[in-house]
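Folds vary. Our protein:
___
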Amino acid sequence: MTEKEIKTLMKKYLNGTISDKEETLLEEFDSKLILKNKDTFRNEEDKQRIRHAISKNPKGKHNNSSFSNLAKVAASIVVLFGLGYLFFMIAPINNAKEIPVEEVVLQTEWGQKMNLTLPDGTQVHLNSGTTIKFPKKFSAYSREVKLDGEAFFEVAKNPNKPFIIQTGEVNTMVHGTSFNINNYDDKDRVEVTVATGKVEVSSNEEKVFLTQNDQAIFDRTTKNITKEHVNAADYLYWKKGIINFKDAPLAEALEALERWYGVSFIVKNEKVKRCHITASFNNEILTVVLESIIYAKKGLQFEYIEDNKIMIKGKCTD
């Protein structure tokens, strides 16, 4: 092959446009050349510089199994034209401007829920007061979304493109599974609960792996992640329109009702917030829910101050 033909094939190889026939031809040429030039690199530093440059190439179509072939190509370039030429060919690829991808932002108000399908086929169920952000088209290497609030994900399987949910200081990564994330700003923790499959949850400090019925809890104050075994179904009632309280403090129950019905509560007696409640409500109107709580907890009363503002007063005994 002439020098011009070799340069053309090497450029194609590095930017991922080479055909199978051209690749075979180039690899045969590389093998012969490498055998004749065992001391291709001047020192270990040269070798590491080339490996680093190759690993940053975003356009190559080659997988891990062909990385050694790409290394041989790089070595051939060094033999023929020197290190400078190799970086001359790679630099334009690495420095090419990325075309901005349009971002989609969807939000549910308090009292609303939403089901949607992401560009890759992943199904997402948004709870009330939730915001999700994702690109109109996912990149070739990963699928990344941002979440504030609560959502259940049924991730489309793709072992070559991890699915990553960013929730502030916590990242959740999967390839194809289903799980729930609770990440409301007014809570002191982030909860990731797995229904099926395997999930990786990580922060800047640590990382845990979850399987079915595992839950990771990130403490926003201590920055620690703890892992517990739970019944995932207990955290998924909201998808079916069911509000489920299991020995929950009344303060926590009222917060859930605020999100669910789009109202706000004023509690006259702070001690009432520490009262516990166990109950389940299936698509009931708010008045029915409140009357049930008042019936179960003698001494409590509620009063509508405005259409969306309710006062809780009286005493509560567990």
Observations:
- The chain is about 30% helix and 35% strand.
- Residues 3-94 form one domain.
- Helices lie at 3-15, 20-36, 44-55, 67-81, 83-94, 250-261, 286-296.
- The chain has three domains: 3-94, 103-235, 241-314.
